[in-house]
Amino acid sequence: MNVISQGLYFIYGVHLQPEQLARCCRAPQALAVARLADFRIDFCGYSKRWDGGAEALLEDAGVATWGVVYALDAEDAERLDLDLAVRVDGTGSYFHYPAEVEDQQGTIHSVLLYMRNSLADRRAPSAEYLARIAAGGKAMGLPDDYLADLARRPALPASCAVPKASTLRDLFNLEHCQC
After folding, report:
1. What is the tens place of the pLDDT at every residue in 50-102?
2. Is the N-terminal amide bond of 163 cis, ω within 30° of 0?
3. Can you give the CATH number for the domain in which 129 is found?
4. Residue 27 burial by CB count (10 A; 0-12/13-18/19+): exposed, middle or buried?
5. How many domains does one find in the chain?
6. I want to staple 85 with a disulfide (CB 3.0 to 4.6 A). Which of 40, 92, 147, 163 is the partner?
C-alpha cells in the first residue's frame, strides 16, 4: 500500500485547529479521530511563530498521541509542507514519517505524519500555542482525558503577540496565496 498516493495525514498539533488548517489547505477532509500508539506529544526547539517550544512526537512506550486522520489532495499536502517547513532534502523543521494509527472504531489507517527534524532542546511551548492545540483537539472531538492531560502541560506566556507572521502570505495578507 502506498501511503503517499493515498494522501492520508495524521494531524496532532496546532493544525488540529480548523482555522489553522484552513490557512494552509483548501479542501482537507477529516476522516477519523485516531491514536498514534507509543508516541507522546512534546515540545522541542524554538518556534518563532509561537514564541516557545515547537510540537514534536517522542517515542514513549505505552503512551498515545491523539489526532485526526485527514485526506489531503496533492496541492493541500504541498501547502501544509510549506507551512511546516518540510524540505525534500531533509533540512527542514519537519519531515514525513509513515505510521499506522487506530481510529475509535478500531480501523487502522496508514498515514504520513510530521516528525520534528531535531528532538534536542526540549522546552515548554507558549501558553497560547498549547491553548490553540487543545482548542483544536476539542473542536475535532479528541478524548476529554487526553485534552485534560494536554492542558496540564507546562507552558509559558508568549513574550509577544502570537502567532507571528512567518510567510509572505502572513506578512502581506495575500488572500490568493493559501500556503
Report:
1. 999 999 999 999 999 999 999 999 999 999 999 999 987 878 999 999 999 99
2. yes
3. 3.10.490.10
4. exposed
5. 1
6. 92
